[in-house]
Amino acid sequence: MKVSGKGKKYDCILGVSGGTDSSYLAYWAKQQGLRPLVVHFDNGWNSELAVKNIQSICDKLGFELFTLIINWEEFKQLQLAYLKAGVIDIEVLTDHAIMATIYEIARKQKIRYTLSGFNYATEAIMPVGWTHEKKDFRNIKDINKQYGKLKIKQFPHVNFLKKFYIHYLTKFESIPVLNYINYNKEKAKEILINELGWRDYGGKHYESTFTKFYQAYILPKKFGVDKRIAHLSNLICSGQITKEAAYKELEEPLYSPNELKSDKEYVAKKFDLTVEEFDKIMEYPPRSHFDFKTENDLWNSYFNMIKRVKFWKRVKVK
Predict the structure, then answer these.
(1) DSSP line for 85-120
(2) Structural domain 12-296, CATH architecture
(3) Residue 63 CB contacts under 8 Å (≥ 6 apart), including other chains
(4) Do 207 and 17 meet the contact criterion of CB atoms below 8 Å apart?
């Protein structure tokens, strides 16, 4: 990365949410002498604490922060379309837009690398049915076509052909740095708190008000899913907590009654709905993402082709 960034203002891009993983990655980058352009995607749901954490990290590490603020009306209608469609992974919208934003900035700035906070130590375990492929723009378009009110105009997106071009022709790389170091979540938090003035949110991805509400209310209420089971299982497998500690945490309620009431009122108001209208949407039957058009077949065909090419190369060598 340093060689690639020689003579340039930045040698990599780092997307930050204010959460533990991306915040620690910023700290790590500083220790390594890297010069990342720190990018934050504001989808309208940032908690005040997340904003403070991000700014504190950038100020103390001396990194430049670029914040993209989404067109809220368009994004709001996309999220409402997903809620009405009854599909499980509403967070696809944010994750896809972050990915597309980073690609576009990398293209404009001619940066080849981005640092990824994904890591096997804390977030690799997740049942397939609990999420959907983040890069699937065809799925986003079809859900919006059937349940949305606005055409997609400003929402950052990338389709199959563009992603193929970016990754396999321009050689753009996403580096999961945390997989190459001894990453411990609690130790990372201690460093962030003591050295960067970072404050904890009390839950994974709770830096976003909507993500907190989605994971702690929508998922268990509508889909019978408690993501803590997957997150805690991951920490058990990486030796960071015991089963006993995980069971104890699962005994804690996801929401206190007063906090749930407050957050539901806030979310409904943000969507320009009454609480009663929101509750009615929650009663819509759950549906699979595969009830809608997807890019899944395209990617499967591509990966199968790659496997065949590699196979025949091996045969030829022999």
Answers:
(1) HT-S-TTHHHHHHHHHHHHHHHHHHT--EEE----H
(2) 3-Layer(aba) Sandwich (3.40)
(3) 14, 26, 29, 30, 36, 37, 38, 57
(4) yes
Query: Residue 113's beta-bridge partner residues?
Result: 173
For residues 285 and 86, the answer to whether their CB atoms sit within 8 Å is: yes
Closest to 225 in 3D by CA, of 68, 48, 91: 91
What are the sequence ranges of the domains in the chain? Answer: 12-296
What string of pLDDT tens digits covers the 318 residues of the chain? 999 999 999 999 999 999 999 999 999 999 999 999 999 999 999 988 889 999 999 999 999 999 999 999 999 999 999 999 999 999 999 999 999 999 999 989 999 999 999 999 998 899 999 999 999 999 999 999 999 999 999 999 998 888 878 877 778 899 999 999 999 999 999 999 999 999 988 756 578 899 999 999 999 999 999 999 999 999 999 999 999 999 999 999 999 999 999 999 999 999 999 999 999 999 999 999 999 999 988 877 777 776 776 666 666 655
What predicted TM-score, i.e. pTM, was given to this entire model?
Answer: 0.90
